């Protein structure tokens, strides 16, 4: 520092300090000016660099402050002025600390302590505010906190200088005369540590930490330990906080204070030095254990402020301290990671430094670390796991002690789980499961992808899940309390999962399994905790847990009740852990493990076993072939919850009947759900090597996909998704296509008299939809299989319906393929009708002008060419024209049929007989089959079949089921569009009279329909999903197609126009109005005059002979304008 800089600083401070001395005596006239000078002094000191505050300059600034404090009573100084004085002292002490003498340090310390403790009032009742105490505490912190060489304002950077100055003040603080002051200050700081003013609370805890760590004598800490622990516990738990919890930074500071208090008062090192406990580092220490008389001897008493350490004191203090530590359990749920990290550090420090003195608290503190290792925050988890591994490090002298405690915790927690579950203590179950998961987590260290277990923990878990682990005992107790809620029973004709897969066969990259909940523990966090616990156990045990998986699977295959479902759940979670896979993981690329041939071999057998057991009737009792639960004894009944009213009669001779033993609930859906999960896990384990097992495992998955239960079908969709990804397929549809033969074989085997499954036809229909256009190459055998089964099971409506539905799907896929459609010739009249009148007139005028200019075409030779024109022996070469004429293709000859058309023709020819089947659903399917085949088949193959089936088609218009009539109308619409010439006579002679009758019938039925529209001239129903609305729409569309594609008859067209006027009414349904406009627009192309006359006569614009057509109740004006404007 240059002399010029110091001189400038002196001049700035002199301008303030001189008038401040003049106003040192505080009166009402000088308080304002003195306060302003103090403010200027604070600002000036903050602007000056620390290096300018030399000892002489610091003393110069300190002198007016000391004068003010000396000339005025401390209680007479206002709070605001006192805050400025302490702020100045804090700035000065940061630089003055290096050269300050012990006397000045003590006086400033006592001044700060007096203000913090409120001892400056001297009984006058004046209490300083929290801001004044905060500035006093900041000044005290400037006196006490540690410094290193980098903080030296002189720039010497001497570590010895910093250490000497700190030791000087530390020694003075431990002086016997200063101890009462230090004790009183600690008491004051404990009071301010409970303040609601957060900055004061924070600085108080910092000062307490540094006093306990560096300044308090070793014999004083046990004296203040009870108050220190009690106060810090209150601070941590937030007993005075309205929020119910304390700020994380405050919790961390309070735990740090408590840690230093515990370690310095009851730590191993200090207690060993005092002879309270004996440290054991080798075998020789065992021979030097103190005798009972020695340990119970009462040592000499010390100073009054100290506490003598002895075994009795240690025993009592350890017990009280354990109670205080136990109260910190609620801190595990603190919402801030800083508090949880501090708890982990606190637990590690206390465990490592009080191994001998606090044996009863070892399990509690280790349980803290185990619980924190499962926290949601990564920093907390890493801190807790790191602390546990350091405690269990081979270099740790107490490693064997902590290892034994962890094993005991695991054993006790596993034993208590069934009791906690049966008592429905969700929080306790979650905590217990988290402890076991944490034990498993610290037993595994991921190094290069390999799992290395701590020998003791890994061996213990492997033994527990192995043949000698007694699973026959603890397994039944666990299964007896694990019960899931019933799966949703809502049923639909087509599951949401099936519709999703059909609409988008690629399916999203992630499809999760539906969630299930425990019956008595509905919390989702409890289920996650138990799942993670079982996965962790399986991961630690590795292949040693396969015995437990096999045992649980055997129990699951022994029935379809709640216990069997729970057993499959346990087996699935253990196998996930052993194989390092997870059905909850969205990142498929992250699931990897070293191949374990024993686990793979077990998985192959398990997948096949599950597929074989799937075929058993889930509603029947399965034969007892697996482990059976032991008979219940009175000692096994721990807790019983009853949810019902127990009647109590007040008669003397009343004897209540013994309660019947509750039977286990049948849960076939949950059993199938967990079976699908096991199949999925085995597929994840085997990967591409799972392909041969699809012969057995694919059908159960597809059968579940078409299940009427949305819960089971969604599970099957998730299984397909996981299996496809594990086998490296882009989508489930690609996997099914690649393994179509496996699926077809499985379906065929389930459509025999020996083995009949009604769901097999639904599975086959799903396969056909997913395969798509490739069905032509793959479905030849499918069609033959369907007709063979139709011949065999034609009397069973359910099977016939399913098989016909498969045929419909095949023909629909062929129809959607544009390449399979034959070329149709557009009728000449249709081309003419599509032209405008103006275009027709221009064509006529053009022909009329050129009619005489056209060359007369050569007349065709009409001579008979059946005899030769020359001699047979003529040497003239025969004309090759005849041979060329024979070789030329016939323009009227149709091209050969494609494989798709041949397949469709075969289906149609063998399906017509079912048009008269007793089931309306089958009749509707056959009509749909005919409709889909019309665009596919050429006329030579289509028209004979339609002609043959025409009487049956007409009869279906008289069907009692509206959806069958709708199917007929849709078929006729397609025929009119594709083969209009063929349908000309049939439309107007056969179809239209029946349609007219249907319109009259529907009009009469709507008048009695509760859903019919109300009002003058109302038409149809309110809903678009009623049978009448759908039938109206089908009639409109059919007649529109007939008018467009069939040559019309004027009389019939007039009847059509008159009959369908009602649907142009403004109050009719919007969809019916749309199709009615389409009909009249198409009719206007054929006979626009008739359309104009009908519409205008209906509105009353045309009188005379058509006045009878007027309908005032129908408002068709807007639709008429749209139609006639075209």
TrEMBL record:
Domain called TTI1 C-terminal TPR: residue spans: 806-1092
Protein name per Swiss-Prot or TrEMBL: TEL2-interacting protein 1
Gene3D superfamilies given in the database record: Leucine-rich Repeat Variant
PANTHER family in alphabetical order: TEL2 INTERACTING PROTEIN 1 TTI1 FAMILY MEMBER, TELO2-INTERACTING PROTEIN 1 HOMOLOG
Biased composition (Basic and acidic residues): 855-867, 877-888
UniProt xrefs under InterPro entries: ARM-like, ARM-type_fold, TELO2-interacting_protein_1, TPR_TTI1_C, TPR_TTI1_N, TTI1_rpt
Pfam families named among the record's database cross-references: TPR_TTI1_C, TPR_TTI1_N, TTI1
Gene Ontology CC annotations of this record: cytoplasm
Species this protein is from: Obba rivulosa
Region Disordered: start-end pairs: 819-838, 855-900
Residue ranges annotated for the TTI1 N-terminal TPR domain, each copy included: 10-374
